[in-house]
Give the backbone structure.
Amino acid sequence: MTAPTAPPARAPRNRRPYAVVAGLVVSFAFFTLLGVTIISALGLPQDILRHIGLGLLVLIGLGLIFPPVERVLEKPFARIPQRQVNKEGGAFALGLGLGLLYVPCAGPVLAAITVAGARGEINAGIVVLTLSFALGTAVPLLVFALAGRRVTERVAAFRKRARGLRIVAGSLMIVLALGLALDVTAAVQRSLPDYTSGVQKRIEDSDAARQQLSGLYDDSNKDLSRCEDGADELRSCGQAPPLEGIDSWWNTPGNGPVDLKSLRGEVVLIDFWTYSCINCQRAVPHLKDWDRAYRDAGLRIIGVHSPEFAFEKKRGNVIAGAERLGVTWPVALDNDLTTWNNYRNRFWPAKYLIDADGTVRYLKFGEGQYDRTEKMIRDLLRQANPAVALPAPTGRATDDLTTDRTPETYLSNLRIRGYVGAPLVDDKPTAYRFPKGPLPLGKLSLDGTWTAGYEHFTAGPDARIAFTYRAKNANLVLAGTGKVTVLVDGSPTRTIDVSGSPALHRLTDDKEPRTARLELRLTPGLQAYAFTFG
């Protein structure tokens, strides 16, 4: 009698994709919540987490190419009692590196998490939000990894060439790390359509999301979220939050701090700004006029400098930029965005008017409506002191973006205004045509192929854009590599070379305001963000 044949031994299950995802979730959650606190306590550079993550990617890449390096990397995981422990340990290390690189990513959700970690105010809600964010990112990666693994398991060519594929994968990982270190990946990302930006914006910029992502820490400032931007009347928006977490002050006696409570009885204008922001720079002349006209009547302006970029955190840079702009009022360096968060702010520039009792009465986000803001200042000064003698409104009060000048216009599928033509198609290359007949003042239209995204429009073949404007000069924020031919009233006037990250480019420049038809012809791949006019 023949003994029954034993069933073939089942191949050990490959858990590497799960180990990578686990490492990503663990390192992202830990370093997002506690990394800023640890780094600050040790006095380490702010970008050290990114450098560690890049270093891990290079080491993993070297481990794939050179087995002795892989064995060294796997040693810390050798005592974990799992099958294929070494391979899974290396995969977990790879996940740790990816999680470290993911920590600095931007966005309202992650901004709220990061600020919570920086302030050391971590609670169960913040932990759940962090883990949800990490898992939401990791799950799609796991799906792709599992799908790719099944393909390689079934295709004999992959199995026969495993060693060569490991060398290729390791080399690509090292190239990726170098690309991240040199910011090459940002240029690649700019050249690709952002197909999810519209959906992301609709979620993150909804009323519910704004209220949940701002002020996650307590309810002391919740009334601010119910105030309307640029309202036509004074409202009660709750007690003004304190100026907290300020790194240092400038333009105050002895560079000492300013306490809002010490300014009771006076009207305070809090201006959130950053010195390299063109929108903030254009608002400064109005602030200078108001400071000059109303300081003796009881107006106090405080500039809260909340940086958008790392170089804007350096005190010397801020002071030099403020001096160039002629800023003479107190400036608070809000490098950790603590006061920014206290006010639930999300814009540069942003103005908050506080009455003599310390209540926020008016909010204005972005540029424009300077005449309305000045009217609110005058009304609050009269409420604070009915006998006050106010000077005539400043000369710039009527110099608004909507007065004798075409307003700033975003090339955004959700924020564009004045567009004329076929309906915009979100995040998909589409052919458009200029409408027949003249283009009315303040209107723009597209011709040729364009991809309309939330943050920018990307030029395709034969891309042209027309805009009838009134201003002294027209400007456009552009990114990518290529050329833009500028035509005014049908005549070519200049050709602009564009290269690199988003930057403001002057299209026209006249001594007096004029009404003209502007036409731009763009190289495919260029990205157009926003028109501004001066």
